[in-house]
């Protein structure tokens, strides 16, 4: 998304269908730009609402989201229906704290920030790094520690232990992501150090980066640590997370418009849902280490 520098049983359900590449594409291709998904058809407008002024849809907490990024946000039945995951449950927790209804403004990965800027949603609560580039155009409140990880075949993954080990490899990333920008920068460093450049290929969807490795079009893919670990567990042994190639170096944030009066309100309510255990519950639900939560 760096276009500016750019079920209880949920986790037991195989998501990628890696036995057949075609099924993988179907499982993770459910993002349709411009769709909205509200949990209910009637907004909460009673006197118990604690919501701040300025919500784009009165009675709703509206979040831009791309539900193809498990375990943070994805469709419960793979291609439609309820949106679940840590971020989705976090959105619901905030809405509940404010006494309004959650509403999901579904868009493509690279359409999240434009959606926020154009007023389609109040926030982006969807696994975005708090990168320097994004912080120049939006406000953000920290929610989770994050960083890039490398996925490859188990045999290759064992040989990847530092960033320079990617020099000369074919590496897949999601288009317009911070990871894509990091791989390009790393390739430049490879060349400067007299090594072979990285052949970097960007794909619109996360599922396509996985397919690229499975089908031999790429040697490895770079993805956030949270998603990478989940991908490996769902790959039926075809993918493994390499050793500590990259150190966690940033955080996921909840983004609001730059200078928006909602920015302070969102920061405060995130502390509320952290303190009341709602975020920890969501993390545990989706097999995330609660210790990576970072709300302040």
Based on the model shown, name its key terms:
D-Maltodextrin-Binding Protein, domain 2, 23% strand, 296 residues, globular, single chain, Solute-binding_3/MltF_N, alpha/beta, 14 strands, 5-stranded mixed sheet, 10 helices, ABC-type amino acid transport substrate-binding protein, disordered N terminus, 6-stranded mixed sheet
Walk me through this protein's architecture.
- The structure is a single chain.
- The protein is of the alpha/beta class and 296 residues long.
- It folds into two domains: 31-146 and 251-292, 3-Layer(aba) Sandwich (D-Maltodextrin-Binding Protein, domain 2), CATH 3.40.190; 148-241, Periplasmic binding protein-like II (D-Maltodextrin-Binding Protein, domain 2).
- Helix content is 30%, strand content 23%.
- It contains ten helices and 14 strands.
- It has helices at residues 21-27, 86-98, 112-117, 132-135, 154-157, 178-192, 206-214, 225-233, 262-275, 278-285, and strands spanning 35-38, 60-65, 68-69, 73-75, 83-84, 101-106, 123-129, 138-146, 148-152, 170-174, 199-203, 220-224, 240-241, 250-257.
- Strands 1-6-2-7-14-8 form a six-stranded mixed β-sheet. A five-stranded mixed β-sheet has the order 11-10-12-9-13, with helices on both faces. The chain has a three-stranded antiparallel β-sheet with strand order 3-4-5, covered by helices on one side.
- Helix 6 links the parallel strand 10 (170-174) and strand 11 (199-203).
- Helix 2 crosses helix 9 (262-275).
- The two termini are 24 Å apart.
- It comes from Alpinimonas psychrophila.
- Residues 60-290 form the Solute-binding protein family 3/N-terminal domain.
- This is ABC-type amino acid transport substrate-binding protein.
- Keywords: Signal.
- Residues 1-38 form the signal peptide.
């Amino acid at each position: 998304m760096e276009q500016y520098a750019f079920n209880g049983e949920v986790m037991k359900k195989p998501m990628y269908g890696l036995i057949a590449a075609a099924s993988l594409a179907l499982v993770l291709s459910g993002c349709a730009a411009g769709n909205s998904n509200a949990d209910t058809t009637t907004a909460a407008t009673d006197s118990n609402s604690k919501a701040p002024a300025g919500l784009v849809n009165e009675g709703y907490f509206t979040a831009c989201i791309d539900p193809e990024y498990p375990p943070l946000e994805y469709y419960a039945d793979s291609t439609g229906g309820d949106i679940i995951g840590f971020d989705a449950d976090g959105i619901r927790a905030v809405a509940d704290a404010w006494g309004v209804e959650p509403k999901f403004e579904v868009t493509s990965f690279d359409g999240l920030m434009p959606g926020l800027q154009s007023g389609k949603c109040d926030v982006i609560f969807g696994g975005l790094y708090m990168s320097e580039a994004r912080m120049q155009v939006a406000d953000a409140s920290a929610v989770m520690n994050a960083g890039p990880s490398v996925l490859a075949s188990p045999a290759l993954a064992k040989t990847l232990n530092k960033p320079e080990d990617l020099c000369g490899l074919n590496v897949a990333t999601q288009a317009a992501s911070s990871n894509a920008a990091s791989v390009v920068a790393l390739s430049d460093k490879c060349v400067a150090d007299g090594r072979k450049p990285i052949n970097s290929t960007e794909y619109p969807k996360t599922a396509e980066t996985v397919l690229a490795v499975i089908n031999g079009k790429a040697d490895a893919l770079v993805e956030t640590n949270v998603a990478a670990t989940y991908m490996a567990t769902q790959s039926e042994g075809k993918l493994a997370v390499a050793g500590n190639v990259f150190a966690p170096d940033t955080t996921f944030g909840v983004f609001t418009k730059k200078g928006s009066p909602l920015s302070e309100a969102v920061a405060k309510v995130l502390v509320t849902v952290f303190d009341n255990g709602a975020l920890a519950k969501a993390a545990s639900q989706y097999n995330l280490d609660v210790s990576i939560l970072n709300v302040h």
